[in-house]
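## retry 2 of 3
previous attempt timed out at serialization; input unchanged, resubmitting
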Amino acid sequence: MIKRVLVLLSVLFLSSCSASLEDYRQAEPKFNLFEYFAGNIKAWGMVQDYTGKQTRRFEVDIVGTVEGNTLVLDEQFLFADGENQTRIWTIERLPDGTYQGTAGDVVGIAKGREEGNALNWIYTLNVAVGDDNYDLKLDDWLFRQDERRAFNLTSMSKFGVEVGRISIFFEKRH
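## retry succeeded, writing output
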């Protein structure tokens, strides 16, 4: 019983100490989602389970097209096991400067906001695992490194418990 209480207190403490988007307000270069993802991007990433074990590796070719306040991202995934996946994001810049987006495997609407060199997306993704599908909450953090590079760290959770992580490195092609 005491062990469970200590684990619960640790989880509550750690979750209360997480970074805030405002912490990045002064960080440069500014993220600028539409500018960064317009054109061709190459990305490399991995998925880790709740223990930190790498479970998948992948490459992504991304083509971003901007028209007015809409960004369409065509993402072509190639996993190390040979599986191919496509995700098409449609992202809208709202009048208050925040973003909302949809994609075929996103449940509902993704909500995003940027401050300084950081962008935070919150959404639910329907993930196939074997013959089952799970709706996982994603807390997606992107950080602009420089003109060409950005990093992405994502926490995946179910019922408030982290079940995995995704890490991605992006490189803009000129």
